Amino acid sequence: MIRTETVVAPSHHVRTAAVTSVIAAMPVVFGFQLLVSDLGQTSRDLVNESACQHGSCEPSPAVVRMVADLEHQGSSCRTKPALTDSVVFEWKTAEVTVVDFATSIRALSNHEGWVRQYCMPPR
User: Fold this and answer.
1) Please, are residues 89 and 102 in contact by the beta-carbon 8 Å criterion?
2) Is residue 116 a contact partner of residue 63, using CB atoms and an 8 Å limit?
3) Is 110 helix (H, G, I), strand (E, B) or coil?
4) What is the pLDDT along the chain (123 residues), one digit of tens a residue?
5) What pTM did the predictor assign?
């Protein structure tokens, strides 16, 4: 007859390992939350600052017309940042166009104009 032995770890070793794992994970979780909150705050500040042209936060008549046209077509537009395909962008030349999100970020970072509205297409 072959004798088999089962090894059972003492419960205090299991508890110690669990507590150590939780304590080690806490800085990672808090660091990630801090990073995400900082990134979100930075982008909100950038959008809010970029929405004001020469100290004026009033939308130009061209922006108002473009947003009204998009909403008439069923889109839902808002000033709060949103990841969308339709961004109403006012160029420094005073031209207002609808661009994709990537184009708006690139143009904004190059100081070519201002994000005015984020428009979600009809569902």
Assistant:
1) no
2) yes
3) coil
4) 566 666 555 676 667 776 677 566 655 555 555 444 444 444 444 454 555 555 556 788 999 999 999 999 999 998 888 788 899 999 999 999 999 999 999 999 999 999 999 999 887
5) 0.55
